[in-house]
Design brief:
Blueprint (H helix, E strand, L loop, with lengths): L2 H12 L14 H10 L4 H14 L7 H9 L3 E4 L8 E2 L2 E2 L8 H13 L1 H9 L5 H14 L5 E4 L2 H15 L4 H13 L1 H27 L13
Antiparallel strand pairs: 1-4, 2-3
Helix pairs in contact: 5-6, 5-7, 5-10, 7-9, 8-9
């Protein structure tokens, strides 16, 4: 049975629903956890999985023991690669502004219009998915990078399938998505310049609001700081 088939079996047997999905049967999450334990998955890992499921009610955590088993069954290697340069503002790394944040989406919208290579690519492949596809590419270009990365036989293929599945959700072919990721990486400095502007403006607005809220008021009710 392939890893994909085992993941599907684990999900269906768990009883954990994905958002927007409905399946038949309550499942047996406890039985699944005991099966994992019987296969040798460490107790600490299963406790972490149980906590993640309890807090999120999402099935994604169910698959971590399967990845542990797949890695344990083959030769593994820790690969430490140099990440791309990344700026910070007030301790916030710019890659944190991705499609999962409001400021990140603002920056990505500008990136789509202000970067000539990105705008040209999106125009050539436009299927009404511009922003969604670009947001996914930005996430994989810098936000999703980890170091060191654990690799084992089949891990690269599995990662590629995951990326393809994410782009499928935004109606983009895997090859186009991969090309867009590489294009974003080539022009990430332009994106970071936009992110920097967006973040600095947001921080300045917040600081001004806090100053206004903490200012004293005169006795006649008019705003103003005491001298």
């Amino acid at each position: 049975m392939s890893l994909t088939e085992r993941a599907l079996a684990a999900w269906l047997s768990s009883g954990i629903e994905s958002r927007g999905e409905e399946r038949i049967g309550p499942g047996d999450l406890g039985g699944l956890m005991r099966t994992y334990a019987g296969l040798g998955v460490p107790e600490a890992l299963l406790e972490a999985v149980a906590t993640a499921i309890r807090k999120t009610r999402e099935p994604l955590a169910l698959f971590l023991p399967l990845l542990w088993l797949a890695a344990a069954a083959s030769k593994t290697e820790l690969v430490d690669s140099s990440p791309p340069p990344c700026g910070q503002i007030d301790g916030v790394p710019l890659y944190a502004l991705d499609k999962h944040t409001r400021l990140g989406r603002q920056a990505i919208d500008r990136f789509a219009k202000e970067s000539a290579p990105i705008a040209q690519f999106l125009a050539e492949h436009d299927r009404s998915w511009n922003t969604a596809a670009l947001g996914m590419a930005v996430f994989y270009a810098d936000g999703a990078l980890v170091r060191p990365a654990l690799q084992w036989r089949g891990s690269a293929e599995l990662a590629a399938k995951g990326v393809a599945a994410d782009f499928h959700k935004v109606h983009v072919a895997a090859g186009i998505g991969a090309a867009l990721i590489q294009l974003v990486r080539a022009h990430v400095a332009d994106l970071d310049a936009i992110r920097s502007q967006v973040l600095r403006r947001a921080l300045a607005t917040t600081a001004n609001r806090e100053d206004s809220e903490t200012g004293s008021f005169t006795e006649d009710g008019k705003g103003g700081c005491h001298e």
